[in-house]
Amino acid sequence: MLKISNHYVSKVAFSLLFVEVLILIGSFYVGSAIRFFDGEDFIAPKLEHFLLSACVFAGAIVFSMSALGMYQLNFAEGLRNPLFFLRLMPSFAMAFGILTLVFYIAPDLYFGRGILLLVFGISALGILAARAIFFTTSEFRFLETRIMFLGVGPLAKECGDMATTATSYHKYDVAGYVAMPGEECRVAPTSVLQMEPGMSLVALARKYDASEIVVAVQNRRGGTFPIRELLECKLFGITVTDAATFFERETYQIRVESLQPSWLVFGGGFDQSFVRTFMKRAFDIVVSTIILALTAPIMLVTAALIRLEDGGPVFYNQERTGRAGRTFRVHKFRSMGTNAEKGGKPQWAAVNDPRVTRVGDFIRKVRIDELPQLWNVFKGEMSFVGPRPERPYFVEQLIAEIPYYNVRHSIKPGITGWAQVRYGYGSTVEDSVQKLQYDLYYVKNNSLFLDILVLIDTMKVVMFGSGR
Questions:
Q1: What keywords are assigned to this protein (predicted)?
Q2: What is the C-alpha separation between 441 and 310, in angstroms, rounded?
Q3: Please, are residues 204 and 193 in contact by the beta-carbon 8 Å criterion?
Q4: Is 414 exposed, middle or buried (0-12, 13-18, 19+ CB in 10 A)?
Q5: Helices of type H across 82-153
Q6: Residues 121, 127, 128, 134: what is their CA dihedral angle, to the nearest 10 degrees?
Q7: I need a labelling partner for 238 at 20 to 30 A (CA). Which of 26, 54, 111, 135 fits?
Q8: What is the dihedral of CA 280, 283, 289, 290, to 10 degrees?
Q9: Any alpha helices (H) in 311-357, and if so which ranges?
Q10: C-alpha–C-alpha distance, residues 461 and 367, integer Å
């Protein structure tokens, strides 16, 4: 895995992206060469003038493919996954729309319909070929990481299950588990590695050709924890990873049940510097202004439809908990009936909630109901990307029941966020735990790069009606 601005990125996915960018730029030059070749010579002698247009073309395609989830494919399914073909053509159509807008704003970048159609065709063939090669090579053993787990208890079993069931981006070959004194064995006895008398941990790792050791021991107190041997492993080039970091890397979550306070205190991340705060505020203003301008007609139509359906108010204002626990009133398009909480007691929103109106059901699926929160962003009460703001009534309950829940209030809440695009609707405390684990990952690793990824994933959620 690579780390870009504290966010974990698969080496395979990054390599695929890099190769496809080269293919797209190369396809542009090949298409241009074919189009301008008259049989003997080029009509346009300097194709290097097309470099900027080629980069714009590649950027539009990559952005569209990302928005439609084409870099989150399951490598175990490969080209057999029908969604690959179903999303390739729409992504090209979306890119065509983006390019049309770019050509309207910057006509100097326009390179002709003939070239465009030819380049699209060559690019499609190149991407299909590249992905066929990547999916085929993903089955090779040299792409696997040989991994060993220190511990045999529940935490080690959970880590091992995750490594063996992972089907995308990173493949593991589990060498086995190393038993620690006082732990109840929860893994298969045949998978426990036997250490010969006097054998060191580094010798055991070398014997089984393990290149990484994941420390999955919950109780690390006492003199039995092999800290010196782990240091020796690290000095000999074997990667030593904490279970919390392993979960963070593989699931893009921070698991609450395996978390130790010292890991949060001494680990990296949690950037709240002036530069990060300034960049995030600038990002909020720019993105919100663009979205407000683009969606103003949609908001007017939505307001009219809400009023026509039941004659009730268009907007719904509700108290929510923001940064540092301060409360504010969030603004949304009303998606429920006017007496949604007639009993006076707050209720969890749920999938297929009977309180949702017909118009409300649609605007919730495509997130139009969230658009009035742009005003909260302009006021500085919210950010465009961040943890979902919750009602104070539920916050008090969740803080009492879930460890570290209050950490999510260290930054501004957002219209969209990492948890919203990664997890579906939550209507229970268990759902809140799952969403908190994504929120903790965002709070720890938040950056402009991660904000852009969330924005792209939000487009996918809007298009396919998934997540929340």
A1: Membrane, Transferase, Transmembrane, Transmembrane helix
A2: 41
A3: yes
A4: buried
A5: 82-105, 113-137
A6: 170
A7: 135
A8: -150
A9: none
A10: 9
CB half-sphere exposure, 259, CA atoms < 13 A: 20
The encoded tokens of residue 177 equal 């588990």
Q: How large is the average pLDDT for residues 191-210?
A: 92
Nearest to 279 by CA among 455, 452, 67: 452
What are phi and psi for residue 212, nearest 5 degrees? -145, 140
Quickly tell me which residue has 């039941």 as its tokens.
310
Q: Report helix, strand or coil for 152.
A: coil
Average pLDDT over residues 50-59: 89
Better-predicted residue by pLDDT, 365 or 368: 368
Q: Decide the pairing of beta strands 212-215 and 144-150.
A: parallel
Bridge-based pairing of strands 144-150 and 171-178 is parallel
| Angle at 286 (CA atoms; ends 282, 291), nearest 5 degrees | 145
Longest CA–CA separation in the chain, Å: 82
Q: What is the bridge-based pairing of β-strands 2-4 and 212-215?
A: unpaired
The residue whose two tokens read 């010798």 is 203
CA-nearest of 306, 297, 311 to 333 is: 306
DSSP label at 271? -
* Residue at token pair 């405390």: 429
Q: Does domain 142-251 have CATH number 3.40.50.720?
A: yes
Helix and strand counts by DSSP (H, E) for the chain: 16, 10
Domain borders along the chain are 2-137, 142-251, 274-337+350-464
pLDDT one-digit tens code per residue, 250-280:
889 998 876 777 777 777 778 888 888 999 9
**pLDDT at residue number 45:** 42
pLDDT in the model for residue 71: 81
CB neighbours of 237 closer than 8 A, spacing ≥ 6? Answer: none
* Contact (Cβ atoms closer than 8 angstroms) between residue 191 and residue 124: no
CB-side neighbour CA atoms (13 Å) of 175: 21
Which tokens is 325 given? 């626990």
> Which residue matches tokens 């707050």?
346
State yes or no: pLDDT of 86 exceeds 90.
Answer: no
Q: What is the pTM of this model?
A: 0.84
Question: What is the token pair recorded at 427?
Answer: 């209507």
- Residue in the structure block whose two tokens are 């949060």: 264
Tokens 């893009």 sit at which residue? 252
Angle made by CA atoms 116, 119, 121, in degrees to the nearest 5:
110
**Which runs of E-coded beta strand occur in 294-413?**
315-321, 327-333, 383-385
The Cα–Cα gap between 373 and 412 comes to: 13
